[in-house]
Every structure is written in C-alpha cells, then in structure tokens.
Write a structure and sequence with these properties.
single chain, 289 residues, alpha+beta, Elongation Factor Tu (Ef-tu), domain 3, 8-stranded antiparallel beta sheet, 7-stranded mixed beta sheet
C-alpha cells in the first residue's frame, strides 16, 4: 500500500501515454528535476493505442482506480498537440488531480472520482525554460505542471477556471436476454473488451450468440477461464474489467473476427435449463409463448 504522503514526500504521480518508453523517460526527467522522487512516479502504460483518445479514456479510468487520494494522474494521448486544445488540470472530490490535454481523455476518470473544477494551465506559470518545438507537451507542459502539483502548488494558481471538453464512454443498451454494444478496447492479446457488463448475463450459461453488423449470429461457448475455453476456440467470458470479453484461446479474437475499437456488436443469451429434480419453488417457471 502506498503511504499517504507528508509534506516531505509529495504526491504520487502516475503516467499514462501513447508515447513509448523513450519519450516517457523525458517526462520522468522533468518530474525528477522538479523535485518528485523516483519512488513516487508510477507508469500505468506508455503503449496505449496511438491517438485513440476514447480507448485511452477507458483505460485510464480502469487503471487509475484504487490509487490514493494524494495522486496526480498525468495522461498524454494527445493527437491535437500544438493546436487549439487546452492543457488542463482537473480536481476531484475524491482527492486525485488529473493533468493532460482537454480532449476528453481525463473526463471519464474525473467524473467517476467526482469532478470538482478544471483549470487551464498557463504555460508561463510553469517556471520552465522555453519548450523545444510544439510537439511534446507531455514533457514541456504536463510533466512540469504535475511536478508543481505534487510538491504542493494549488491548481488554481496555474491558470483560470474553464469548462472541460466532455467525453462519455459509449454505453450499451439492453433488451430482454440480449444487448447491443461495441468494442471498447483491444488488448495486448487481441481480446475484444466490449462495453456490455458481465453482470447482465445471468448464470448459468453455456453459450451466447454473437452478431456483428449484418452477419448471421454465431454461437459461442461461454467460458469461465481461458483454459476452459480451449486453444484456438473462439468464445466469450467475463473480463477483469467486469465487461464481456470475446477471446480466442491462445489466439487473437480481433484478427479472427476483423473487429476493432468502435465495432458494433450484439449479444443474446439464454440460461441453461434447470437440472432434473429442481422444483417450482427453486426455479422460476418459463412463460409459454
């Protein structure tokens, strides 16, 4: 467990980006030179899918859960770097502060933590040497702002209050024993993480039907683990995100189905029939059509 920092420790800083390890090292150098000790900087990921703000917003929300209230989360997935989008810091009721571009990447996490206020970062107040070029605000703007916040600078001193650009992670719709949703994330293994909550699928299940666009539905086994799914078998299971995941045992579902982030899909399911000997008092009778 990370201890709550005292005045000498400063806040914990997390880094999430699509910039890769080499550029991330430059961000860390700024944090360290700004007085943040190496032991208080944590990488969440630096291989988020490039330029995919929505997918990064989902990952940041999921990965940043559980960090202490004294955390500063920095997210740099910033296809508009050097353009009109604003650099911002968001404060939350739960305590953590979020630093990054005003393109929506911070908002789902901020709303989950209780978004309090948003401030545009005035670069002139960062006490940094002039930026080299306009292509790396992660190093030249966000890291120095995070270092100041980690050492106790009040966020309102960095710039004026503004309204952040809104972004909401797409929500599924439910209809009886089925749901319509989309792919939110394709992970390192090619598994397809949908936005359909696993809790919607009432166990026990043996199979579900997957439909992609106008193609015919295909029956998939409902598995409890990758091992039970079987090598090379396409199926579905509950992911660690609490969302339905479509996977291939020791394979890549994204390649098998030719799907990507944003691809729409539908699921349908039925519970297994009650085993023999189960009475009407212990199982809900099925309605006749």
């Amino acid at each position: 467990m990370v201890p709550h920092p005292g005045p000498r420790d400063g806040r914990l800083v997390t880094l999430t980006s699509d910039v890769g390890a080499a550029y991330a090292a430059q961000m860390k150098a700024v944090l360290f030179s700004g007085g943040v000790t190496p032991g208080r900087v944590t990488d969440l990921t630096h291989d988020a899918p490039a330029h995919r703000v929505g997918e990064a917003a989902f990952l940041l929300r999921e990965m940043a859960r559980g960090f202490p209230p004294s955390t500063v989360h920095v997210a740099v997935v910033d296809p508009g770097v050097g353009g009109r989008r604003r650099p911002i810091v968001i404060t939350t009721r739960a305590g953590p502060m979020l630093v990054g571009p005003d393109n929506g990447v911070l908002v789902p996490l901020a709303e989950e933590l209780g978004l309090l206020a948003t401030y545009r970062i005035d670069v002139a107040k960062l006490r940094r040497r002039p930026a080299v070029g306009t292509t790396f605000d992660g190093r030249d703007v966000f890291a120095p702002a995070a270092a100041l916040l980690a050492r106790g600078t009040r966020p309102e001193s960095l710039g004026p209050r503004v309204t952040p650009t809104k972004y909401s992670i797409p929500r599924p719709t439910r209809s009886g024993d089925g749901a319509h949703g989309q792919v939110l994330h394709v992970d390192h293994f090619g598994n397809l993480i949908t936005n359909i909550p696993t809790r919607w699928l009432v166990p026990p299940l043996s199979r579900i039907a997957l439909r992609v666009e106008r193609h015919r539905p295909r029956a998939l086994p409902w598995a409890t683990s990758y091992e039970s799914l079987g090598r090379g078998i396409l199926g579905a299971l509950g992911s660690s995100f609490g969302l339905v995941e479509v996977a291939v045992g020791e394979g890549r579902a994204a390649d098998r189905l030719h799907l990507e982030v944003g691809s729409p899909l539908s699921l349908a399911w039925r519970r297994r029939s009650a085993p023999r000997g189960v009475t009407a008092n212990s199982a809900r009778p099925r309605k006749r059509r």
